[in-house]
Amino acid sequence: MEVSTGYCTKTLVGHREWVRVAAVSPDGKLIASGSNDHTIRIWEIATKECKVELREHDHVVECVSWAPEGCTAHINEAIQAENPRAAKSDGPFLVSGSRDKTIKVYDVSTGSCIISLIGHDNWVRQAIFHPSGKMIVSCADDKTLRVWDFKNRRCTKDYRCSRALCHLLGFPQVGTLRYHWKCRPTL
Fold first, then answer.
1. Fewer beta carbons within 10 Å, N or C terminal of the chain?
2. Cα gap 44→54, rounded to integer Å
3. What is the pLDDT of residues 128-137, one digit of tens each?
4. What is the mean pLDDT of residues 6-29?
């Protein structure tokens, strides 16, 4: 889309159902899209070609987020903790969350799921890498915000909200540990 005019300049066709989310890679060359068809597609912007289709989720994909550059060493460390013979990768890496209640981390260069995080009791609405690259923060319809040590594949912090659903996460300043999250009232 051309921002100044709002004119659509490219259409990417491939998902079999509605696209729920899309995110542009930090280098501006790729788009990740998540869909009701339970897949994530990685698109090359220049050619409009789908480079990879990721099929690890068992339900609707609610969120996708690219890893910042600072995550590469930490992700490789997590991969090698699980499999010491695994080759190091330069990525790019992507995190996703789904209605199947899981969080997945992918090595987009190989199309493989390298980390699965399980712990939410309801749909995962957002999952993002912390700017430090050492953790993932997620929120879900179970009314929790969780901080994950992805190297050890475990939740290290669990914040509960008794009267609202958390649905949006962000870091207002790079490197801060202060979380920014928005809640919507429950019915």
1. C
2. 15
3. 998 888 999 9
4. 92
